[in-house]
Amino acid sequence: MRKIVSYLPFATAVAVTCLASWLAGRPGRAVPTGTRRGERDGH
Amino acid sequence: MAFDLDRGLAETQDPAASSGYPDPPERMGFFTDTSVCIGCKACEVACKEWNAVPEDGLNFTAMSYDNTVGLGADTWRHVAFVEQPRGLGGQESGLTVVDVPGPTVERAHTRTPVSLGMPASGPGDGQVGGVPDMDFRWLMASDVCKHCTHAACLDVCPTGALFRTEFGSVVVQEDVCNGCGYCVPACPFGVIGKREDDGRAWKCTLCYDRLGVGQEPACAKTCPTDSIQFGEVEELRERAARRLAQLHDAGVGSARLYGHDPDDGVGGTGSIFLLLDEPEVYGLPPDPVVTTRDLPSMWRHAAVAAGALLAVLAAVSWGSRR
Amino acid sequence: MTVRDDASQTDVRMDDDPRLRPEREAVVGSAGRRRGPGRGERLMVPRAEFRSYYGLPVLNEPTWEAHDIAGYLFLGGLAGASSTLAAAAELTGRPHLARAGKVGAVCALGGSMYALIHDLGRPERFVNMLRVLKVTSPMSVGTWILTVYGPQAGLAALTSVTGRFPRLGRIAALGAALTGPAVATYTAVLVSDTAVPVWHDAHRELPLLFAGSAVASAGALGLLAAPLEETGPARRAVLVGVVTEYAAAKLMERRLGPLVAEPLKRGRGGLLMRLGEALSLTGALVSQTAGRRSRGAAALAGAAVLAGSICVRFGVFQAGMASARDPKYTVEPQRARLGEESHP
Ligand code: SF4
Ligand code: SF4
């Protein structure tokens, strides 16, 4: 049990990383301008 | 501070001088002659007493008389006990039939000797109670930090807690160590350890505090048979060679030196040993190599990998429009 | 060390005089005559394949905890490679992928720092790492690499989330992108620079393995986070990363030879390695097929590759621990190296 608990911080770090990254990458949110090739990648 | 890797890893036989001491005293160390060790563990006790090393379990390990298992944070001297079904060179008990009364001999001859698995401490072959085939020897060896010429523990320590003393020994500064534990797997001999409740790394200091005032280390001081000898490493190497020749002459062909060779993987050790069997029998590595010997190659490979990582991520981004 | 004449003091050099301590000259077994030729020194037991002291390890097992240090190997790699991928994405006009990477990098970095400090025996003394810079200590070098990388990665993430100071953010992102690869690969040197057989003997392949694993995980995070239109680089990164990771692992096993590679194939280490390879390869496959069209499939592939990368790092870590625990991995290769010459 203690062993599983000791992995919690690591699991949390991975989960937070994925979640925050996903939030940051969601389309539709305003992204800073100034990117060189702006809209070029559109489908 | 070692900015230059090659200088940091330079091959040298005078570790104190190459660590920057302008005019260091002679390099000091141990010569542990295991052929005269009687396994009394006085060294273990003296070390614990002098250095205030905490008790680390009064255990029965079932490994002969060994109860400290191995070197670590709380064991700086460790006496190994090995029992082997093998005679020592010219070994005899020294007890002869001369003093045994006649009737006892007669009575004894009517019995069949039975081996109790004990060392043959009775009279010799064909005598009272003799067990002719009972070959047995006890190997005892007091192990300690090797105070390597090229010490991996010292090389990898990120805080500089481990340092080289003017006597060429390797010592941890307990007020600097932050318990990163890097030195523990770096040591090829399994010497240094991290103390659980304290969090810091500890090992033999070659009694740095005693050396400073002209005293020899506690273990060498206490050893009743002079199995542990303390002195200048140069002189100890000669002494060890002399002792080896003496034992070989006496027919102890299994005697060998360990750590005496300045050309071995750790540049020779400050603690030289005379062993009566292969090092691994005592729990010592047969051919230890300081891990940092390959460090330049490691950094080169890592640099190539880092470059490749950069190149690949650039290529996958610029290489295609999608 | 000087000779002291003071009679009341024990003279350090006293033991130099053989007259004072005759017992050190004692010849073993000298109490009796030899019982005849060949007696005593005969080797009574046939030489066993491998000998040890009661099967105890020669090395002291690393005190590093898997959940901290193996976790850090993964998180550090993810952070470093994500920063590089993010900057590349930004420069090639993929703003969402860039922002996801920057934010992911800074979170992974936070986890790394937590793990590194938590693993110390004296966490409050972490700053002692900054007392010195020692090139002979990969941990010291790594700390300084993180010290350079960390603030830049942080700044890059902050500016991209707030949208303020874009020029400063760009510079920070570029800086993080250039130091990121060092963060991702120095950890291989960190574990290799020990006496642990599996880690040390694999010191040529480990940096490649870690680099591949880092690229794969950064790509995977991109797949997980970025919209489909921008995941091109992430997808390709996953492919290259997974293939590199797999190839490096195979090379590593070959280099270590049948004996020392054992912990990578059996036990907990072996299980994690196999699981990691399976997850990574599956993830890479899905990312190249369904992951091109479906957002969900891409995310799933990303999650699989991330999990695979975690397993591989933990597998390498556990295999190293296992190789330190068993004396045969230390003794046998050294014996082989010595050859026959040392046998009396
Ligand atoms: S590497 Fe091991 S044996 Fe050598 S000085 Fe350090 S602790 Fe002692
Ligand atoms: S545990 Fe202490 S002595 Fe050992 S490497 Fe870390 S800081 Fe140095």
Automatic annotation (TrEMBL), chain A:
Domain of life, per UniProt, equals: Bacteria
Q: What is this protein called?
A: Uncharacterized protein
Q: Which organism is it from?
A: Streptosporangium saharense
From TrEMBL, chain B:
According to the record, cofactor stoichiometry and binding are noted as:
Binds 4 [4Fe-4S] clusters per subunit.
Query: Which residues are recorded as binding [4Fe-4S] cluster 2?
Result: C47, C204, C207, C219
The subcellular location is:
Cell envelope
Q: Which domain of life is it from?
A: Bacteria
Query: Membrane: present as a keyword of the record?
Result: yes
Q: Which SUPFAM superfamilies match?
A: 4Fe-4S ferredoxins
Write out the ranges of the annotated region (Disordered): 1-25
What InterPro entries is this protein classified in?
Answer: 4Fe4S_Fe-S-bd, 4Fe4S_Fe_S_CS, FDH_Electron_Transfer_Unit, Formate_DH_Fe-S_su
User: The 4Fe-4S ferredoxin-type domain covers which part of the protein?
Assistant: 28-58, 136-167, 168-197
Does the record's keyword annotation contain Lipid biosynthesis?
no
Question: Which residues participate in [4Fe-4S] cluster 1 binding?
Answer: C37, C40, C43, C223
This chain belongs to the protein called: Formate dehydrogenase iron-sulfur subunit
UniProtKB/TrEMBL annotation, chain C:
TM annotation in the entry = 69-91, 103-121, 141-159, 171-191, 206-226, 296-316
Source organism per UniProt: Streptosporangium saharense
Query: Which Gene Ontology terms of cellular component type are present?
Result: plasma membrane
Report the protein name in the record. Answer: Formate-dependent nitrite reductase membrane component NrfD
Keyword entries, A-Z: Cell membrane, Membrane, Transmembrane, Transmembrane helix
Q: Where in the cell is it found?
A: Cell membrane
Q: What is the lineage of its organism?
A: Bacteria, Bacillati, Actinomycetota, Actinomycetes, Streptosporangiales
Which InterPro entries does this chain map to? Answer: Electron_transfer_protein, NrfD-like
Alphabetized Gene3D superfamilies for the sequence: Formate dehydrogenase/DMSO reductase domain
Q: Which family does it belong to?
A: Belongs to the NrfD family.
The domain of life for this entry's organism is Bacteria
